[in-house]
Amino acid sequence: MTIIPPYPADDHDHHDDLNDLGLQADQAMLARSTLDRRRVLALGLLGIGLLVGCGTSATPAGTGTTGTGDCPAVIPTETAGPYPADGSAASGQSVNVLTRSGIVRSDLRTSVSTGTTAAGIPLTVILKLVNTNASCASLSGYAVYLWHCTQNGEYSMYSSAVVGEDYLRGVQESGSDGTVTFQTIFPACYSGRWPHIHFEIYPTLASATSAASKIQTSQLALPKATRDAVYATSGYSSSVTNLSRITLATDNVFSDGVSTQTPTMTGSTSAGYTANLTVGLAR
Asked: Distance of CA 60 to CAs 34, 52, 272, Å?
């Protein structure tokens, strides 16, 4: 039996051997051909995800998703909400941050206009764009615009306290492996919504200047365990109260399911967190 290297200390369940994965993994392995079994064993950590049906949530960023067993469904379309700042009419105005110099960036924590930095637990968001019509081949050269609220539940450019800021918003172009990476902070839970992050996808970086050119809009649903740890820290006190009034089942966006919108989380409140998600697009 091939021994699988142990997970990092801050990762999900700690398994050192395929024998520890239980009946579900045994049945999955037996159902495969001899060649497939060898491939699964050779994949190591990724093979565990394939065996137990974790799909993309078990895929480390940059490893690629080339087989149908590891290919997610197309990510669902969700509302951009009332604070997109993408040139579309929202909240009674048409604010557009996408045309501002410096908005193409990976670190979203500082306003390009004022230099002010948003406080909060550090969060790295890694999205991998794949083509569900081509065995989940990587989609390079696309652009992702990502935005979310502050640790107090406010949106830059809209909320009165931060209307002059444009932090926690930014654009990145997907690399040859289909990934984009953003450095940001963990957002709050505000009244009526499960903790989330918005994003839009554009076919090219050049077209990412107006919502009129976007090809998909969706949201990330932040997992409960991580959210609970973050909201126990200083600066997120309002989120604790708001959380007591919302569940995934009652959230008006996520109540129909979040299987393709929940990232894999690693990290800690002291070191910061990383969220990984493979995003399926039908291209």
From this structure: 25, 16, 17
CATH code of 122-281, in short, is 2.60.130.10
Nearest to 227 by CA among 209, 211, 243, 250: 243
Buried b (16+ CB within 10 A) or exposed e, 25-54: beebbeeeeeeebeebbebebbbbbbbbee
Three-state DSSP state, 20 = helix
- Cα 217 to Cα 15, 26, 66, 70, 129: the distances in Å are 36, 38, 24, 22, 13
Each residue's pLDDT tens digit, 32-49: 443 343 443 444 444 434
What's the pLDDT tens digit per position in 56-82?
A: 333 333 333 333 457 999 999 999 999
Q: Are 98 and 170 in contact (CB under 8 A)?
A: no
DSSP structure string for 196-259: EEEEEEESSSTTTTSGGG-SEEEEEEPPHHHHHHHHTSTT-HHHHHHHTT--TTT-TTTTT--T
Task: Classify the C-alpha dihedral 141-275-257-219 as positive or negative.
Answer: negative
The distance between the two most distant Cα atoms of the chain, rounded to a whole number of Å, is 62
Secondary structure (3-state) at 5: coil
Distance between alpha carbon 57 and the CA centroid of its chain, in Å?
A: 10
In the chain, what are the domain boundaries?
1-53, 122-281
Measured torsion, CA atoms of residues 12, 13, 14, 17, in degrees rounded to the nearest 10: -120
The pTM for the full model equals: 0.77
